Task: structure prediction
Amino acid sequence: MKISGTIRALLVFLLVFPFTVIELAAQIIDENEVIPAVMDMYNRRFRRATDPVWEIQGNNYRVTFQFRNQENYAVFQPDGRMKIQRTMMTLEELRPNTQQYLRRNYRGQVVRKASFVQEFPRNRYYEVELVPRRQQNDPDPPVTMVRFANNGNFLSEGSGEDKEEDDEDKIDLPPQLLRDFNRKARNAMDVVWTDVDTALRADYTIRGEEAYILYTHEGEWLFTSVRLNTRYRNLHQGIQRWFNENIDDFDFVHAEDVQEPPRERYLVISIIEKADKELAGDQELLPTRIYFTRAGRHVATVYPEYDIVEQERREREDRRWQRATSDDALADGDGIGESISIRELPTRAQQFLNSRYDHEWRTEVCRIIPDETHRMLYQVVMRQQGREIQHEHFFDINGNLIEEEDDDWY
Result:
């Protein structure tokens, strides 16, 4: 299983650059395109409604319609639950104390729109949109938004400028993208779309788990990640066995179930290694991300990059070389040839070994040896379990592969 270069580059971009949240423009759809759960709730709640016009915005369904001789607007979630209902009203239909407040405090303004709003499950209020009387016929007059409680008492006052600014940011989602998203994330909740320049991203929750999905601006699916509500002890036994054999001390962060086209699916385990606390210094601790197949086979390891990691590694290697070649070490027969752990290898060497060998291989030898050309080399011998097959590798001080042999000399 390979992780595509495009997806790797896109994930790096997403980690580096902030998102720009975009309110998405609605797409008008036919009534037969509305999913059954939404249509069933609409028909039960507004049995005698007429003239419905359906739209889809993000993952939600919006409809305007006539009900009891009043214009209505409603938004439904994909599971059929209603998020908001807005019933348009005239000034005379508002509560008497609301009318009195408006006449007393907004004498130079007229009501352009008024509505009764229900934000489910419990929030209800009246909203009135006012414009100056002398500018009511202007194409773009200043707007004052006033809200009143369910009993008609004043709640708050604001400007309509923020809403107008949001409208300027609206973009259209390709219809095929919306259809595909509704199919892949059928029970998604709390959907928020963002434009990250290189892609369109939706963050949402599904069955209580956080998730996000990526599409191209043309509507082509790129990537889906679901953060699993699981603990380390519930991970696949093969994954736990790999950690026990390869990483000494760490804190489990989370696990992700990842899918990408055409049919790739794998797990990404994020951990914080205790050894990184010294390397990071004052920097934020970053997770190491380890990729596995769903059957628990190790695929790749991506280590965090701190500004001082390579410098620290070089200094540590110089100290090791000085210790290995000291008179005391040579006299004791130690130093050159000393065994080290895989984690002490340069990052490049670790990445090479992680990409080449799965859990069926064991580290037979990992040590420092002298070399006339490179001063010192890392010697690593990998052995396959149950078979007399061993691969020998030599890396320089920077982790570059210098030589490799496939035999059973050792």
